[in-house]
Amino acid sequence: MDILVGSLFAGLLIGMVLALVALGLTIIWGVMDIVNFAHGEFLMIGMYTGLLTAQGLGIDPLFTLPVAAVVGFLLGIICYFGFVKFLLRGPMVAQLLGTFGLMLFLRNLALLIFGSEDRALHHGILVGKSFDIGMGVIVPATKLACAGLSVAAFVAVWLMMHRTKMGKALTATSLNVQGARYMGIPTEKMNALAWGIGGATVTIAGALIVNFWSVNPFIGLLFTMIAFAIVALGGFGSVPGAFFAGLVVGMITELPGFWDFFTYTFEADWMVDIPMTSFKYMWVYVAYFVIMVLRPRGLFGWKQ
Amino acid sequence: MEAIRNALDFSDFPRLDLIVAGSVGIAFIIFPFFPHSSFAMSTMIQFLMFSLYGMGWNTIGGYGGQVDLGKAQYVGIGAYTTAVMLILWDVPFWVSMPIGMFFSVVWSFIIGYPLFRLKGHYFAIATIATSLVLKDIFEVWDFVGAARGLEISPIKYHPPDFLRLIFREDVYYFYVILGFFFIGVLYMNWFRKSRLGFQLRSIKDNEDVARSLGINVHWAKVKTYAIATAFVSMVGSFHACYIKSIEPEDTMSLDISILIALMAMLGGAGSLWGPIIGAGILIPLKSYLKEWLGAQAGMVGIDLILYALIIMVISAFEPRGVWGIVEKIRRRKRN
What we know:
Largest sheet of chain A: 2 strands, antiparallel
Number of helices of chain A: 13
Helix content of chain B: over 70%
Oligomer: heterodimer
Strand order of the largest sheet of chain A: 1-2
CATH class of chain B: Mainly Alpha
Strand content of chain B: under 5%
Number of strands of chain A: 2
CATH architecture of chain B: Orthogonal Bundle
Largest sheet of chain B: 2 strands, antiparallel
Largest interface: A-B, 46 and 45 residues
Number of strands of chain B: 2
Distance between the termini of chain B: 39 Å
CATH topology of chain B: ABC transporter involved in vitamin B12 uptake, BtuC
Order of helices and strands of chain A: HHHHEEHHHHHHHHH
Radius of gyration of chain B: 20 Å
Number of helices of chain B: 15
Distance between the termini of chain A: 41 Å
Number of domains of chain B: 1
Order of helices and strands of chain B: HHHHHHEHHHHEHHHHH
Structural class of chain B: mainly alpha
Radius of gyration of chain A: 20 Å
């Protein structure tokens, strides 16, 4: 029983962080209808920013978030004005391959600068501490804090999208670009803003993830695919959808834990032989495929 | 007969194209007789392989306009079928290649049928997802060597072995793949004038209009996807015999899929010569960058940075490719 509750809890916590990873992608996708393959690389940059700031300034990793947010915002804006703007004129294949080129560029730049070895954080007020929440379930304090901060960031973005004039202009742009332009909304600036917010949220997520996950330059693609799955499940361009889908995908990544639980409960020997941990992320891709085929709009989506 | 005559009929191209294409073809045939380094030879073989991959991609991605970024899974199926059959049961290449193509085509129908309900970005990402799923399965499947992959040891055979395609010199491989290359060009020449080719172009232009004209859009896409798959799987089988050691990471990675699509786009998707031009530019560039910069100490990844910059510049400023530029110049001259 404790395995089940533990997996459930771990899935929920990681799901909240993954939802924040996908938030930027869903905003960019919704506003501009462009796929950003470099999303995971933004996350990787956020992870390095968090790590290096914490180590360089000697402050707690959880206080590096503002630095990461600024870096991410600037990165998004620079990418938009320096590169993505020109992609928008071309056909779809050029957009896909262009952002893939951006991904390759950032990944190898990180490889050139930081080298290929894994790096991890070893200090901080929360590292190594954990809570016992009963029923034998132990939750690491870093994960709990990261999940909490993710939710806070999520709520902040949601409020910005729904309560401020700027957020309403963003939503209008994603609903209908031409209409928004006729209403006097500077859609070009809104596109740049979407990239800025997208970059900032994902680098914040990176600075959170680095608290419990080691970083190397190749980590991006995994998170890109996870973010795609979350966005597909939640619906393209839907912010609350991304949150719930993040929780679901978090559960999917914890499938090995559930698998162990059922193996012990039913004493099923055949289940032991299947190397479930090796398939950990495969289920995310399978889920993406199945969701897309059965319900292309996603759970909360309005954009076909 | 009619099909063969159609495949050999290049008369709708301008004479200049035919002269250039013919002289390049002859240059390929006589290339091994001139002094060359083994690096040039392997680059040449890579180029021919990738232009065949690109031709396969061009059917669905170029003529049909469906951006498929999951071609690497079929490279993997073809390569693994040939390697497994050769190692375990000593099946010759010429038997295992069609079997690999059969497996690939069956798999392409299984995933293609639901896949083509999607369009645009959603389709592209779903193809990536299927490819990654297959790669993950191959990485833990002990029968095919899991993440270590398989190795064909050439000691057991007596090269040159034309049945199993085990050679010591690259020159034999070169002529085998060159033969495939010419057959591929002829097939593509037939394909673009076939009924399916015209159907695809109308689907690319406007899917609703195509449907209203009585074209079964879904079935046409699935069929073309299977054709593209067969091409890629064929070259994948060749890859297994040529490289002799295959593992999921380098036969089925996303980079291969992207490279295939990128070449076709760089050359000009939806034209007969496009993928060949694209492969001719990109493959030598990639290998020379790797040879020149990849080994320098303290500069890990610099070759891929340059490569990525080239991708970014092309897709931002010249997304219609080299062939697009040629056609633009021609149109201007005509007017």
